[in-house]
Amino acid sequence: MVTSQGDDNMATSTQELKAPKIDEPSEGARVENQVRFKGAGVPGATVQITKVEDQHLVLTTLVLADGTWAGTANENLEGLITVSAFQTLNQNTSPASPHRKFTVK
Fold first, then answer.
1. Number of domains in the chain
2. Could you give the CA distance from residue 34 to residue 96 in angstroms, rounded to a whole number?
3. What string of pLDDT tens digits covers the 105 residues of the chain?
4. Can you give the CATH number for the domain in which 71 is found?
């Protein structure tokens, strides 16, 4: 936990964000185009999924109050794809999640 002193002498604390979890598509899956992603994170955080090869952003979505997130890739993906996710909350950004590889038919 990081604690800092604000301008108004109020102590504020923030917890270090952990990487969000990618549940779908599963590792090694073969999926149809218009890939649907699902996972878990910190409620209220923004999750971003990027292609590992070029850091190209393929999805931005919010984590719901129950800690889940979901969304469809914002472009057609093809072939073997490797992605990673991170989440941002209150200007704090998590480390990247473990890589997830899958194939788009």
1. 1
2. 23
3. 333 344 454 444 456 899 999 999 999 999 998 999 999 999 999 999 999 999 999 999 999 999 999 999 999 999 999 999 999 999 999 999 999 999 999
4. 2.60.40.650
